[in-house]
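Researcher: Going back to the complex we discussed earlier. I've cleaned up the inputs and rechecked each line, so this should be the final set. Can you rerun the prediction on the complete assembly and write out the structure?
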Amino acid sequence: MRVLGIDCGYRITGYGVVDTNGADCLLVRCGTIRSKPSDALALRLRQIHGGIVDVIRELEPDVAAFESLFYSNNVQSALKLGHVRGVSLFAAAEANLPVFEYSPLEVKSAVTGYGRAEKLQVQQMVRALLKLEIAPEPFDASDALAVAICHVHSSRFNRAIAATL
Amino acid sequence: MRVLGIDCGYRITGYGVVDTNGADCLLVRCGTIRSKPSDALALRLRQIHGGIVDVIRELEPDVAAFESLFYSNNVQSALKLGHVRGVSLFAAAEANLPVFEYSPLEVKSAVTGYGRAEKLQVQQMVRALLKLEIAPEPFDASDALAVAICHVHSSRFNRAIAATL
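Model: Rerun complete. Updated structure for the full complex:
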């Protein structure tokens, strides 16, 4: 199974793709999609959508995983992030990928065992879990890989539960 | 010039298309795009995007106009609305339509002369300005027409200013 994890951001959206045989995870690729700050909102959304479509076309993931919730005291930030999540979720749905969502707590817990872990801890655990020599950068990319790994763990857990029923 | 106005909403997104010769506005069509509440978010966004794409393909507007700001004390509502605005703005950008945004104050002022007008007043003024026998319904559709009319007024105003320079 090939899993695409996406970490949505208005300026930088991270993506991370891993392969799994059900036990181990292997890095396929990670990176970032950037929108041009000087461009109008609609154009920036088109750039972000285009970037995700390219990743999906090239790497052909089987599923897409996103963070489900966003905590913010700032309505304007939430609205902006919502725009990016909108086109990102749409790009996955458009490609007929099953979409899974995990809370930040679930993602951090799955990767570090601690729901309030810092980005640096998440990045280091992603490096260890994927047996990489150097940590994936920037945080947008390592966070996206963490979402993908969370989906792998969650699927494995669900299968294990199903096997005991 | 043919103007598409869009009033984004998570459950119901209104659209309104008007033709203008620079002086009068003529209704082409208005209506709503609904997403299925029982479906997952990504699928609902696909339905909304698909609805807007259909309207653009069929009615071939020259420009798209949106409300620029959303006032809310609720971060979750802002985030949800952001998703819908994201795919809606993207649908317009994807069709290479120039995108214009107007604040709710500008839209209400353009149509009723009063920035804090109620939806019913906006609906009645839209009916009068488009010389319709019955008011366009529901509010989602009349609000979308108001955004389109606001763009027509704004373009006319800008042309008038340019002519005096």
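Model: Worth noting: The interface with chain B takes residues 40-43, 45-46, 49, 70, 72-76, 78-87, 89-90, 92-94, 99, 101 of chain A (CB under 8 Å).
Researcher: Good, that matches what I expected from the previous run.
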